[in-house]
Design goal:
4-stranded mixed sheet; alpha+beta; Glutaredoxin; about 210 residues; about 55% helix
């Protein structure tokens, strides 16, 4: 059974959705039969990496919101994250284009470490305030999950996996995916957003029954 998850590193609900899906998986009797494949999606492909800009300012600019509105949205998401055991630190998060981080996850996929790579990226962005567009940071995350740091750096120096990232995003458009997280079960059922754990479990069981 395959579950494909379209996601972006800088998407707060993607990390929340990951936790809710994992909680469902923990309750699923046939969890060992589930293959998880992470697919690349960029909420803002044109975003420029800018460590000097706050995420609040970046959000306000991209959404056309006031700083106060952006702050309220971030406070709400932080509260939702806390409900699934995650601690978000938007005040120290680094505004970063996610394309290279997606390339990194495709490298990790070739080493059967993609899920660990996604977890490391989410934690780096939302909790640790690290620049997820920095090759040094990505190499360290790679080393932490058992990849060769030198290979990660070498991959990021070129264009390796750029085609794979774009293919994922093209596929998302073909499937009509306009937001993430987006979960596809055996190419038959779909769940959009960070839904309740009970819904994920229901779809897992339905997929196996079919």
């Amino acid at each position: 059974m395959k579950v494909e998850i379209w996601s972006d590193v800088m998407c707060p609900f993607c990390y929340i959705g990951k936790r809710k899906f994992e909680a469902a998986l923990a309750q699923f009797s046939r969890r060992d039969e589930v293959e998880i494949v992470w697919k690349s999606f960029q909420l803002n492909p044109a975003l420029q990496t800018d460590p000097g800009k706050s995420v609040q300012q970046s959000l306000a600019e991209s959404k056309g919101w006031s700083m106060e509105q952006a702050g309220q949205a971030m406070a709400y998401v932080t509260q939702v994250a806390r409900s699934v055991g995650l601690t978000y630190h938007f005040e120290k998060a680094v505004v970063a284009n996610s394309f290279d981080a997606h390339r990194f996850t495709h490298l990790a996929k070739t080493k059967a470490r993609q899920n660990e790579a996604e977890e490391g990226l989410f934690a780096a962005y939302f909790t640790k305030g690290e620049n997820t567009a920095d090759p040094e940071i990505l190499a360290r995350i790679g080393a932490d999950i058992g990849l060769d740091a030198g290979e990660v750096k070498q991959t990021l120096e070129g264009n390796d996996f750029a085609i794979a990232v774009r293919a994922d995003m093209d596929e998302a458009r073909e499937l009509g995916i306009t937001g993430v997280p987006f979960f596809v079960f055996n190419r038959k059922y779909a769940v959009s957003g960070a839904q309740d754990t009970s819904l994920f479990l229901e779809v897992l069981e339905k997929s196996v029954a079919d």
